[in-house]
Structure formats: C-alpha cells, structure tokens
Prior knowledge:
The protein has a domain at 6-105 and 228-412. It is an alpha+beta fold. Strands 2, 4, 5, 6, 7, 8, 9, 10 and 11 form a nine-stranded mixed β-sheet that branches. It has a two-stranded antiparallel sheet with strand order 1-3. It has helices at residues 11-23, 48-56, 78-103, 108-130, 136-168, 171-177, 185-188, 194-206, 211-216, 230-239, 262-274, 283-293, 347-360, 363-370, 398-403, and strands at residues 6-8, 36-38, 69-71, 243-249, 306-307, 317-321, 324-332, 337-341, 374-376, 385-391, 410-412.
Amino acid sequence: xxxxxxxxxxxxxxxxxxxxxxxxxxxxxxxxxxxxxxxxxxxxxxxxxxxxxxxxxxxxxxxxxxxxxxxxxxxxxxxxxxxxxxxxxxxxxxxxxxxxxxxxxxxxxxxxxxxxxxxxxxxxxxxxxxxxxxxxxxxxxxxxxxxxxxxxxxxxxxxxxxxxxxxxxxxxxxxxxxxxxxxxxxxxxxxxxxxxxxxxxxxxxxxxxxxxxxxxxxxxxxxxxxxxxxxxxxxxxxxxxxxxxxxxxxxxxxxxxxxxxxxxxxxxxxxxxxxxxxxxxxxxxxxxxxxxxxxxxxxxxxxxxxxxxxxxxxxxxxxxxxxxxxxxxxxxxxxxxxxxxxxxxxxxxxxxxxxxxxxxxxxxxxxxxxxxxxxxxxxxxxxxxxxxxxxxxxxxxxxxxxxxxxxxxxxxxxx
Length: 415
C-alpha cells in the first residue's frame, strides 16, 4: 500500500481451515466442547495454490473475502488500519447485497436501461426545444448544436446527481468514488488511505462533528502521525451515515462486572447475526443478552461446529483499549478468547504459518499458528475497553446522524 500498510489476502480463509482442523482433531482434549463463531461469507476454501497466485499478481487478485488483513509498519496507525479493514468489509457487503438483489434477479440491466431511458428523454426535451430544421444547412448546424447541448445537458445532469449524492453524503457512493491508492484496484477499491481518512475527519470537524476531538487535535490531523481511537472512528462512520455505536466495558475499579460482559456481548453478536439472514441486533439487545448469559457459559458438548451455520457474513468488531486496537473476527467460547486481526503483526508471516500448519495437520503446529490470532479475555478484564458496533445493512437518516453530532453515540455495558 502507498500509505505504508501491507495487505495480505486469504488470511481469514486459511484461518478458518486451521481452526476446523485443530478443533476437529481427536488429539485436542477440548475439541468436543468447542464452540466458536467467526466472520465468514461461506465455508468453502481456496487452495494454497490459488492464494499464492492471487498474492503474486501485483498485490493480489480480486478477493471474495469479507475481510482482508492490513498490517501497520509503525507504532501509531493501528486505528487507521482497523478502520480500513472494517471499510473493506462494508464495501464487500454492499457489493454482494447488490449482486444478490439485482444480478441474481436479473434486474440490473433493467435498472441501467431505465436510467438510460430517462436520460435520453431529458435530452430529447432539450433537442425539441432548440432544433429549427428550416434548411439542410441549418440542420447540419443544429446537429452540432444538438451534440453540444446533449453533452452540456449530460454534464449538468451528472453534476446535479453528484451534488445531490454529495448532499446526502451517501457512504457507499463516497467510498466507491474514492481514487484507488493501492496497487490492486479491484481488491482495494473504495478503501481510503490514511491521508484520506485524516482529511475526512477534519472535514467532519469543520461541519460540527465531535467538537471535543477537534479541540484535542487542534482541528488539524493531516500529515501527522497521530494515534486515533474508537471515538474518532465511530464519529467518522456516523459522518458517513453509517450507524456506529461505541459500547464501553469498564474495568472493575470503575464499574464492577462491566468487563465481564465483554465476552458474552461478542458471543451473542456473532451468534445472533451469523445465524439469521435478516438485519442485525441492537446494542441494547446484545447487552441485555450478555447480562442474562453472565460469564462465558459452558457449551453443549455435542456442538462442535464453527459458526455461523448459515454462511452469513458477520461484520467484524473494532476493539479498543488504552494504547492499541484490533479487529475482532470471531470468538472461541470455552477458552474465553477472541479471534482477532492485530495490525501490529505481519500478515504474510501469519499466512505462511497457517499454510504450513495446515499442510502438516499436527495439533501442535496448528496451535502455534493460531496463537497470534487469539486474545484471551482475561487480558482485558482489568482494562477499559471500547467496541464499535456497526450496522451495514442500511444507512441512517440525516436526523439520526445529527442527533449524535456533538458527541459520539456511546452506551456503557453495566450488569
């Protein structure tokens, strides 16, 4: 990547394969008790050769993964990298929803034809009002004028539509229109660079969003190696009309029992969304389910599947604590550990380790390759943590967005 990050394709795919091999191995004592959820679009896998071929083509071929791995090469850009991975998943879901709704129903061409028909109709109205075919000479002159008028009208219509789209600030249009900053356009189209993210944050400040953040950074973020956190990320997502809520899990010294809800919250998030095709679950509902669930519950001994069972892509969760952030792509319930993409780790090294362990199939090798993806919840219980919960299925209205303009939408999980 031109902004210093390193993109690695196929990590989630290989991670799923390694998890299935490890927890399906009879030599692993707790295999029969394992319960797990992981972000996934389906449970079919690429071969190692296919992944290698994709990686070798100038940064990777077009990926059908819901998430890609982006590594940082510094000590400050973890927030940006996790946001980039999150936005890649957003673009993935938007593209696949479009394909499912229009392409599979055979209505994409119909929409394009309707749009073209409307545009031609507008052109014909201009032509009818301007043409004066009194002579062959005038007809030829008018043909030139008509061509000019058509082009002028086309520019006017396109400009009007662009202005209207900009006025609505549709995040899908904005991200899709971003100039590609990376070597492989098909994979990284619509994922903003760090410089673009910084510019957008400054623009949101100028429009009155997150005034406390603007004051903290003195209203200037571009070209600075400044660390950003969950509040800045969530505020920017809402500025783009993406529904984002910060869920706070406080350390025991601040709120007893709050941090214990983190694991059940994540479990119920992946479980509820992953096992039903429709929409999403609200933050309030997830917190209530976490309260009911209490500490990480014992699993059904007969349940050995890696979920989601319906193959529905679950958006990852942005997880923040003081000094660092990661992207949560899954959870393993019995061992009480999150499965994360950590930008501080080298994606290519992780990928090589996964492929090598899969080829051997030995539990010890698989466990060694999986360890860098595992974050025990016990390491977070004494920390203040923040999770960004996003709803990608629909955008929020301008009224909903502006209701949380002065401060980010946040909810504290309490027992």
